[in-house]
Design brief:
single chain, 395 residues, Growth Hormone, Chain: A, transmembrane, MFS, MFS transporter
Length: 395
């Protein structure tokens, strides 16, 4: 039991440092814009670039490394990830920084996919939903601790020291991986064709679009969370760090609630999540006129962001284990891959809205994607129910 707790901590730490690096840009947008003399909206596209590279590279790298020892693969991914952050630390111009972020993004998705595969391997069946929700919570903890810490460090000591903090945590994480995780984990060998057979399943094709539109809806406004707080809601820089922590706590609560959902109603509860997102986002233009009302709305909508995570992750794993066992690592990566397609779509949409309209438009812009996600989850639940009924034995 002690070994399981240590291993669980290491998997959460992997997610934390990956999330810290990815989300750090949100908290230091203004500082980077000042340093490199580029508009904040342009710096915001670093989020888009990171997410696109993350999403495109992850399936290819995941398929490649899943044919070999997964422990060695995880160490290699974390090594390249650390190198990418070292390059960010030394960036001398905006283009150099963008290239360094591409290096980091290219392996981050494969690293978390392997982490989730290890979670499925080491956790007893009753603990799987719990551990998966905690691994996803690692990203939320990065929002609570990492992003505010990175913002505070950047404000007081410079943005390079924020990246140095990520580098140090990455090196500690690699050391703990070496000391704690099993070294003999491999999955059933299969050709590339055998692994991608997973995509023949219509449930998978519909299901993988859900994290995409869920995160697209959120990131229309989340990419510009710092200017929303300081410009739109008119809070001070000192209050900014506190509010980023509060919103991160909201995200952690949502992740833990996601674990409970996966143990209970699962995907059947998700349509209500997207209805709530739609309502809250449509309220944003009005809510942003009142500082603390705006904070409450942001808190609630950020709470909804991770609720899909554990139910959809378990759904992917269950489909793969039953019908496509050779594709388990790839199935583990789907949530991460398409979440980042969603981040890219949402942040790009937010950039267009902010550049051409104003911050008032980001809420209704995100609400459009919430409607799409609602339609997809209703269709998936109906399909799953019909399949269950068709396989139920006649009495």
């Amino acid at each position: 039991m002690r070994q399981f707790k240590v291993q669980s901590f290491v998997l959460v730490l992997i997610a934390f440092v990956l999330g810290f690096s990815e989300f750090l840009i949100v908290g230091i947008l203004d500082d980077l814009g000042t340093q490199f003399d580029v508009p904040v909206a342009t710096v915001g596209y670093l989020v888009t670039i990171f997410a696109i590279v993350y999403a495109i590279s992850t399936p290819f790298i995941t398929i490649l490394i899943s044919r070999y020892n997964l422990f060695a693969g995880l160490l290699a991914m974390m090594g390249i990830f650390t190198l990418g952050n070292i390059l960010s630390f030394f960036a001398t111009n905006f283009v150099f920084l963008a290239i360094s972020r591409i290096v980091t993004a290219s392996v981050a998705g494969a690293a978390i996919s392997l982490g989730l595969t290890f979670a499925g391997y080491i956790a007893p069946m009753p603990k799987r939903g719990w551990l998966l929700s905690w691994v996803f919570s690692g990203f939320s903890i990065a929002s609570v601790v990492g992003v505010p810490l990175g913002t505070w460090i950047s404000t007081n000591f410079g943005w390079r020291i924020s990246f140095l903090t990520v580098i140090v945590i990455s090196l500690v994480t690699v050391g703990l991986i070496v000391l704690s995780l099993p070294r003999d984990l491999k999955v059933k060998e299969s050709s590339i064709k055998g692994q991608i057979s997973l995509f023949k399943d219509k449930r998978i094709r519909i299901g993988m679009l859900l994290p995409m539109f869920n995160l697209a809806a959120i990131y229309v406004f989340y990419t510009y969370l710092r200017p929303i707080i300081t410009t739109q809601l008119q809070f001070s820089i000192g209050t900014l760090t506190i509010l980023l922590s509060v919103f991160g706590i909201s995200n952690i609560i949502g992740n833990l609630a996601s674990g409970r959902l996966s143990e209970g109603p699962g995907m059947r509860a998700i349509p209500g999540v997207f209805i709530a997102q739609f309502i809250l986002m449509m309220l944003m233009p009005v809510a942003f006129n009142y500082s603390w009302v705006g904070v409450v709305v942001l808190f609630l909508v950020i709470f909804t962001m991770p609720l899909l995570n554990s139910p959809i992750q378990l759904f992917f794993l269950q489909v793969a284990e039953k019908d496509y066992p050779q594709s388990i690592v790839l199935a583990s990566s789907l949530n991460s891959i398409f979440s980042n397609f969603g981040i890219a779509l949402g942040s790009a949409t937010g950039g267009v809205i902010v550049s051409n309209f104003s911050l008032d438009g980001v809420g209704p812009g995100g609400a459009v994607y919430a409607v799409v996600a609602f339609g997809l989850v209703v269709a998936l639940n109906r399909m799953t129910q019909k399949l269950f009924q068709s396989h139920r034995p006649n009495v």
